[in-house]
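haha ok so turns out i had the wrong file open the whole time. this is the CORRECT one, sorry everyone. sequence first:
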Amino acid sequence: QVQLVESGGGLVQPGGSLRLSCAASGIIVSDNRMGWYRQAPGKQRELVAVIIVGGSTMYVDSVEGRFTISRDNAKNTVYLQMNSLKPEDTAVYYCNANLILRQVWGQGTLVTVSS
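then structure:
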């Protein structure tokens, strides 16, 4: 059974930083495309960042240069380091595993950027 468990969300002031973690079980993160998505209130879920099998990364324009996706193969965990946070980054952040036959999602972690 594949399971993704996110952690690290919370309340942060504009300009602050947070690191989200996604601990995976049932799959090997380095063997799969892993991503972070987010959904703000009243908006559709959007892709934020992905890391592919070879280690290359891609970001949505709005977070380029501020967010970094990475993985720790020994811990089988994917991270999203978020710096210079803005109020518009407020959303529920979801970890995603893009498997061959299906998508797997975590339960989400709330990030609130507010003064």
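The mean pLDDT is 97.
again sry for the mixup
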